Amino acid sequence: MQDRQDRRVLRNRAALMDAAVRLVTKHGTTALPVGDLADAANVSRQLVYLQFGDRDALLVAAAADLVNRELIPEVSDDAAPHRTRLLAMARHFARHRPFYRAMLTGSCAFPTARALNRLFAGLVTADGLRQVFGDLDDTTAGDLAKLVTGGTGAIVNDWLIDAPDPLDPEELADRLSSLSHLAFGGHPR
């Protein structure tokens, strides 16, 4: 019985996150009534509050889920060339621009940016930074990883919000690749 309830909870969470991405994309805003999100997921409003606490927490979870499902698997292969991973990231964000633009300019902009930076922080490892910069203590390596992911996030955020349509993923990948080369002396991590 517990297994069936767990599957139902996971199914409802997935339905809510999918509905959140669809509705934010469609309407270009995060200012959506909880009832609209619940209706689109075919669940009760109470379930939104039980599972997420509030609308913004649901929206941030939906953004993190989208990145985890679609983007992280594409960019986490260290064997892939650095520019290939940057291009995959740029294409993902360009493909979902209306969603991310609304998320990064709406009521949950700060928690969205923070959640995305945390997800990407796992891709910049202390060991990778030590290979480039030599012996770094754990605090310095962690701070440097935050600097890299936060700085990259700021560039991507500005591109998503301000760049003219249509977005050019190749151009962003080239910009980020050039910055990586400058920062890491040809050893991007």
Q: Based on CA inertia axes, which overall geometry fits?
A: globular
Runs with pLDDT <50, length 5+? Answer: none
Oligomeric description of these chains? single chain
- Level-2 CATH architecture: Orthogonal Bundle
CATH class: Mainly Alpha
Radius of gyration: 18 Å
* Strand segment tally: 0
What is the chain-wise order of helices and strands? HHHHHHHHHH
Number of helices: 10
Indicate the percent of residues in helices: over 70%
CATH topological fold name: Tetracycline Repressor, domain 2
- Assess the beta-strand content as a share of residues: under 5%
How many domains make up the 3D coordinates?
1
Structural class determined from secondary elements: mainly alpha
Mean pLDDT: 92
Beginning-to-end CA distance, first to last residue: 46 Å
